[in-house]
Amino acid sequence: MDPVIVVGGGPVGLVLALALAAQGVPSVVLDEGEGTDEVRPARTVVLRPDTAALLRRVGCTTLRDEGARWSGWRTLRRKQEVRELAFDDPEDAPLHLPQHSLMRGLRAAVAAPEARELVRFVPRSRIDTLEQDASGVTVHTREPGSTWWRGSYVVGCDGARSTVRKLLDLRFTGRTSVERHAVAALRTELPWPDTAVLHRQPPWRGADGEVTARPLPDGAWRLDWLLPPRGDLVTPDALIAKVRDTLAGWCGDTPPYELLDTGVYTLHHRLARRWRVKRAFLAGDAAHLLGALGTQALDEGLRDADNLAWKLALVWHHGPSDTLLDSYQAERRTAVAARLRAADQSLPVLRGGGGLRTYLPGAVRTHTTLLTDGHLGQGPLGAPPVHTHSPLAPPHADGEVPVGTDPGAPVADVRVTAPDGTSVPLRDRLGQGRFLVVLVAPGTGVWDRRHWLTAGVMPRLAAAVTALPVRGELLVAESYPGAPAHAVLLVRPDGHLVAAFGGVRPAELYAAADAARGGTRVPAGRRGERGGERGGPVGDPGGEHAADLVEEAASEQPGGDPGDRVEGRADGRPGDRTADMRN
Q1: Do 381 and 293 contact (CB within 8 A), yes or no?
Q2: Radius of gyration of the CA atoms of the chain, in A
Q3: Which of 8, 226, 304, 555 can pair with 158 through a Cys bridge, CB separation 3.0 to 4.6 Å?
Q4: How far apart are CA 185 and CA 292, in angstroms?
Q5: What dihedral do alpha carbons 201, 298, 366, 482 form, nearest 10°?
Q6: Which letter does DSSP use for residue 581 in this model?
C-alpha cells in the first residue's frame, strides 16, 4: 500500500509522521518551507502531561534538555494573592519550551535511523492539486519542480491557511481577533523562581488588565500582556515601557534584564466544518484555531495526531473501516468544539465584566478558577477530552465495573509490568498500534515472574488477549485508581479507556475490542448513552459466534508462560507491512 501523505512539516505534521512510523506505516511529509526554523525565544509552547508524553514517545529529546517544568502557579489580583498551586510531582506540571527547540527535536527524531526508513521529509513542496479515487490519493507539488505524489491517505497539517482545506472546499467558520497580546522573552530574576504567575488588574499606573509570566530554561521568562481588542499599535518603545513597569511593579525597582525577543499576536477561534473527506483529513491549525484564556492550540493539534495515527495504522495494515475513520472527526471535532464553546461562553464574563457566574453547564466558577483552568490544562477550558459518545464506544456489558477513569477518558499513568518483566509507566506502552489489557493484581510486584505468569487468572487472560481481533499487549498493575483487585482494563492505543471488567471475561473483552476498532454493529436494543450506530466489520469476523470461540479458546488454554503469544493475532496474519515510498 502507498504511504500516507502528510502536508505540512510543523509540529503536528512531524508528530503524525513519527506516530505512524512507530506503528509500521510509511509517510511522505510535504512541507513548503526550507526545513529550518527561525530562532524566536518569544514563540513558545506549553505542553500538558499527556502531550508531553506523546512527544517523548515519538523521540523528541529536546523536551528534557530545553524545557522548563513549572514548580507552581500563582494568581494575583491587584495587590493580593488569590490562589497558589504547587506541583509536587514534576510530571504533573506544564512543560514550557521555545517552539524552535521543539522543532529541532522533532526534526532530529525524523532523521534518526529508526524513523528514516519510514518517514520521507520533502522541503520546498507546495501542493496545488489533490485528487482522490477508490484506492488512494494523488497530490501535485509545484515547487521546486512539478511532481505528482501517490498515497493511501492525505492529512492536511498545513496550518491556518491550509491549502488542503481549500482544495477540499471546506468552510472554516468562527471568530476573528478574539484576543490580542504583546509578548516579550527576557532573562532576569523574579521573586518567584520557576513559578508561573498570572496577575489580574496590576496596581501600577498604566498597567494592562492582565499579565502573565512563565518560566523558561536558563533563567529566561516569557511575559504576556493582554491588549485592548482595538487598541493602538504597540511600538518598540511602548513594549519596553511595559517590560520596565511590570518588572518594577513585581520587584520594587526594575531589576537588570536581557531582552531576548518581542512580538504581538492576535488569537482567532475557528473550526472547520468537516475534518474528513473520503481519504483526506485535516489536523492541527488546518482544522481549528483556538488559544484564548490560556488554552494551548498545539495541545489540541497533538491530540489530533495521536487520535488519527492509530486509526490510519489499523486500516493501513488490515483494511478500511469507515466507522473507524469517521470516529476521528466524531471524537476530535466534538472535543475541540466543546473547548471553543467553553472559551466563547467564558470570554464575556472574564473580559466583559459580567458577574462571577459562567455559562458552563453545571458549574459556578470564579474568574480566577476559569483562567487557571485554561493555563494549566484543567476543566472545560483545558482538560484532556473524554470521548463519552464516541462511535467506537462498546455497548454496556454486564461484567463492567466502575474505576477511577470514565470510559472514553485518558487512563491514569500508573506503573505497569509486562510479561517480560519490564516495568514502565503506562503511557510509555501507548502509540505502538496495540490495544493494552491491564490486569489490576495487588502483590504481583514482589512475586517472581515465573510464578505470577502461570498463576490464577493469568493463563486464561493471556489466551483471551491472544484471541482479540486486534493486536494486544497484556500488562499488570499493582493498583489503579478506583479499581478493585482483578479488574481488567482495555485501553486504546492513544490511551483512552474502552472498558473495565470485573475479572477475566473473554467474550466481553473481545466484543469491546471489536467495537473499539470499528468492527461491531451494536444491536438496536442495546444502544445506551455510551454508544451509537456502529459500522461494518473490519478484517476478521466479529459477533456472537466469534465471542463463543474466544470463550472456548480461553477455557482450553493450558497453563504456562503466555508471553510469547500475547502480541500475536488469532488469524495468524502478520502485524506489519511496509510499502515503497514513491512519487
Answers
A1: yes
A2: 25
A3: 8
A4: 20
A5: -150
A6: -
User: Cα(141)–Cα(129) distance, rounded to whole angstroms?
Assistant: 7
Provide mean pLDDT across the span 32-46: 92
Cα first-last separation, the chain: 13
Q: 532576569: which residue's cell?
A: 188
Judge residue 158's burial from the number of C-beta atoms within 10 Å of its C-beta, 0-12 exposed, 13-18 middle, 19 or more buried.
buried
| 157, 7 contact by CB (below 8 A) | yes
The mean predicted confidence, pLDDT, of the chain is: 85
The three grid cell numbers given for residue 327, joined into one nine-digit string: 470516529
The rounded distance, in Å, linking the Cα atoms of 227 and 229 is: 6
> Which single residue is written with the C-alpha cell 513597569?
245
Q: What is the pLDDT of residues 152-206, one digit of tens each?
A: 999 999 999 999 999 999 999 998 888 899 999 999 999 999 999 999 999 988 7
d(C-alpha 222, C-alpha 41), whole Å: 8
Q: What strands, in cross-sheet order, belong to the sheet with 195-200?
A: 80-86, 72-77, 195-200, 210-215, 220-227, 172-187, 258-272, 288-289
In this structure, what DSSP letter does residue 495 have?
A: S
pLDDT per position as a tens digit, 329-348: 999 999 999 999 988 888 88
